[in-house]
Design goal:
alpha/beta, 18% strand, Peroxisomal Thiolase, Chain A, domain 1, single chain, globular
Length: 411
């Protein structure tokens, strides 16, 4: 048994707001952050809507000159980290910096910068390419900049595993602390791929909703008429600490991370498997030491795709058993934020923690006609109060990669 790992700080930039209180209030009230794309003219695209970050202001820790060297996903991660550290009341002093790490998940990285410089090199030649182009785009420069700006000198790395990236990053951070290799880890994820190639690529796969006339109702997990997911962007970050270190410094503790599990389908690059996600959930449950009946809430992967949503519900029943599955509450907060790809599990982990903290299950909005094959409680349209002991957050990604994390109240 290793060191116990707790969460002491939360920070985010999301389609629902640029901090955790604003984002959680919108989420708990069933507000959608999805609208027509403004980052570029979407008129020629089949999907013209997304969950964009709105009114983003550069964090004061980033000089404007330095910001020009960063893609948006890096800027988002720095802003979210700044909030999380303030929320945790954790100052990384000189005597602590070698004991603090950074573990982040990024699915795609600097796609916007890649597109911009592809045009520049085509129109003006290679001499116009910025010497900062590569650092702008590399996925691991998000944790790299966080490490640099906040002086975190322990384990620093980036998990790149599509939509599962952030859960892998959070789980790896927890393992690092459990082993005693760090006292604290800044963990989470970031993404900013609402770009022409990002939207065009997923649309070409027929993965995105085309409900362009009514953006706020387009993401509708578990609804009979769901037609694909909605892209989102942003960053979610949390401060993980060794329990004894957190207690010694008098930290406010949100919850404990007691379970982390993972698997690979080895089945298909994009088509969902039931067995793979079920194995990841079973492993997470075993790692936590909890009985299936002690999981009260699951923040589902729930992307709003016809096959994926029902597949996950089958996997939940397979992993937890029919009886336990029938008694828990499930919601897909992607109905409000869209799908943040590499940052999705980080934002949804924050929602899971806030749900525990407030004993409140956020809703799955836009369920006008519940899919008749959906036979579990997916909290349609309205959130509800419920005593919550433990919450599981699921993430499944292209390549058949799966990971789940359990957040548990600490008594």
């Amino acid at each position: 048994m290793g060191n116990r790992v707790v969460v002491t700080g939360l920070g985010c930039v999301s389609p629902l707001g640029n901090d955790v209180p604003t984002t959680w209030e919108a989420c708990s009230n069933g507000k959608s952050g999805i609208d027509r794309i403004t980052h570029f003219d979407p008129e020629a695209f089949r999907c013209q809507i997304a969950g964009e970050v709105k009114n983003f202001q550069l964090p004061d820790i980033i000089p404007p000159k330095e910001a020009k060297k960063m893609d948006l996903f890096i800027q988002y991660s720095i802003k979210a980290t700044q909030e999380a550290l303030l929320d945790a009341n954790l100052e990384i002093t000189e005597d602590l910096e070698e004991d603090v790490g950074v573990s982040m998940g990024v699915g795609i990285g600097g796609l916007g910068c890649i597109e911009r410089y592809s045009k520049i090199i085509e129109e003006h030649g290679p001499k116009r390419v910025s010497p900062f182009f590569i650092p702008m785009t590399l996925s691991n420069l998000a944790p790299g900049y966080v490490s640099l700006l906040f002086r975190a000198k322990s384990y620093t790395a980036c998990s790149v595993s599509a939509c599962t990236s952030s859960n892998h990053a959070i789980g790896t951070a927890a393992r690092t602390i459990e082993r005693g290799d760090a006292k604290a880890v800044i963990a989470g994820g970031a993404e900013s791929s609402v770009t022409p190639l990002g939207i065009g690529g997923f649309a070409a796969m027929h993965a995105l909703s085309t409900r362009n006339d009514n953006p706020q109702t387009a993401s509708r997990p578990y609804d009979r008429d769901r037609d694909g997911f909605i892209m989102g962007e942003g960053s979610g970050m949390m401060i993980l600490e060794d329990l004894e270190f957190a207690k010694a410094r008098g930290a406010r503790i949100y919850c404990e991370i007691t379970g982390y599990g993972f698997s690979s389908d080895a089945y298909h690059i994009t088509a969902p498997s039931t067995e793979g996600p079920a194995r990841a959930m079973k492993m997470t449950l075993k790692d936590s030491g909890l009985a299936a009946e002690e999981i009260d809430y699951i923040n589902s992967h729930g992307t709003s795709t016809p096959a994926g949503d029902l597949n996950e519900l089958k996997a939940i029943k397979m992993a937890l058993g029919e009886k336990a599955a029938k008694n828990l509450s499930i919601s897909s907060t992607k109905s409000m934020t869209g799908h943040l790809l590499g940052a999705a599990a980080a934002i949804e982990g924050i929602f899971s923690i806030k749900a525990l903290h407030h004993n409140y299950v956020p809703p799955t909005i836009n369920i006008e006609n519940l899919d008749p094959e959906c036979d579990l409680d997916v909290t349609p349209n309205n959130g509800k109060k419920r005593d919550l002991r433990a919450a599981m957050s699921n993430a499944f990604g292209f390549g058949g990669t799966n990971a789940s994390v359990i957040f548990q109240k600490i008594y």
